[in-house]
Amino acid sequence: MIVPSAVEAMDAYKLLIGLVVPRPIGWIGSIDADGVRNLAPFSFFNAVAATPPTVLFSPLMQSGAPKDTLSNVTATGEFTVNMVSDELAEPMNLTSGRYPPGVDEFELAGLTPVPGVEVAAPMVAEAKANLECRVVRLVPVGREPMNSTLVIGEVVAFHVREDLLDGTRVDQAGLDLIGRMGGPTYTRTRDMFDMERPT
Predict the structure, then answer these.
(1) Which pTM was predicted?
(2) For 44, which DSSP code?
C-alpha cells in the first residue's frame, strides 16, 4: 500500500496518471484579455453533465503560477475544446511545451485558428470536432506544489464534421481519437467493442 502523504507529490502524481488510464485529451483553445491566442492539451479532462452539456479540465499550477490557459479562461470566461484525432497527435504534442506568455501555439504548431461562433476563443480548424464553452465555475483543488483548478464549462455549441454524424450519433471509428496514458505514452481508440447493458 502506498499512502500519498508518505511520498513526494510527484510520485503520487505519477501513480495517479499511470493508473487512471486512458484519459481523454481536452485540447483547450483560449485567448487572453488582449486577444493573444493560446492552445494547450490537458489530460485531466472529461464530460461531467448532460443538461446542460458540461465539461471540465484541470490545469496544474506551473512553477507556482497559473498556466496561461487558466489565466485566460479566468479573464474571459470562455474556451474551446478541440478533439485530438490520431493525425493531430504531433501538433498537439508541440502545443504541450512550456512556452513564455504571448507565444501563439496555433502558429507554432502550424494550425489554423478559427474564431468561435458563440465565444471568442479560437478553435482548431483541422480538428474533426470542437466544443465552444463558457466557464460556469472555477474550483481550486489540492495544495501546493501541485494544486490545480477545476475549470467547469457549459458547452454552448458543438462543431462536428458532417461525414462523422448520423443525426446526433458520432462515428467513433471516423473520429479516431487518441488518449493519454502515463508518462509520454498515448493510446489509439481503434480497438473498440460493444456490450449491451443489462435490462
Answers:
(1) 0.94
(2) S
Architecture of domain 23-184: Roll (2.30)
Given this model, what pLDDT does residue 64 score? Answer: 65
State pLDDT tens for residues 138-147: 999 988 888 9
The pLDDT assigned to 195 comes to: 94
**Please, are residues 148 and 60 in contact by the beta-carbon 8 Å criterion?**
yes
3-state secondary structure of 91: helix
> And the C-alpha cell for 21?
488510464
Strand 54-57 to 186-188 pairing? unpaired
C-alpha cell recorded at residue 86: 490520431
Q: 181: burial class by Cβ within 10 Å (0-12, 13-18, 19+)?
A: middle
Q: Are 57 and 47 in contact (CB under 8 A)?
A: no
Confidence at residue 63, expressed as pLDDT on a 0 to 100 scale: 65
CA dist., res. 20 & res. 16, Å (int): 6
CA atoms within 13 A on the CB side of 90: 3
Domain ranges of the chain: 23-184
| Predicted local confidence at residue 73, as pLDDT | 97
Q: Give the position of cell 510520485.
A: 11
Q: Which residues of the chain have pLDDT under 50?
A: none
Measured CA to CA, the distance from residue 94 to residue 91 in angstroms comes to 5
